[in-house]
Amino acid sequence: MANESTSIPPAPETAATRARKILRGPVLVGVVAALLAIGLSLYGMLTNPNAVPLNLRSFLLVVIIAGGSWGLIAWAIATAAVEAGKD
Q: Secondary structure of 44-68 in the HEC alphabet?
């Protein structure tokens, strides 16, 4: 038998593979924090309907304010930690 090297064709790039390439390090920390904040805020909204009216505007505000602020803050702290670790 001759030395034949069989090359395995690369796997097709799926949406999950593209997401894994983008979501690394500080970005992943920010996205996880944003999703957690959105989930907890929605839970609070649904368990106490007397405090917040359940409508589309309230839902969008929860997503933008809770998810955006916590995601941005977590991303900034993770980025600072990575940059400080490089020195």
A: HHHHCCCCCCCCHHHHHHHHHHHHH
- Whether residue 1 is predicted with pLDDT greater than 70 in this model: the reply is no
Whole-structure pTM value = 0.74
E strand or H helix at 28: helix 26-47
Based on DSSP, count helices (H) and strands (E) in the chain, helices before strands.
4, 0
CA distance 44 to 53: 12
For residue range 17-76, list pLDDT tens digits in order: 777 777 788 999 999 999 999 999 999 988 988 888 889 998 999 889 999 999 999 999
Domain boundaries, given as residue ranges, for the chain: 52-87
Residues 6+ apart with CB under 8 A from 29: 74, 75, 77, 78
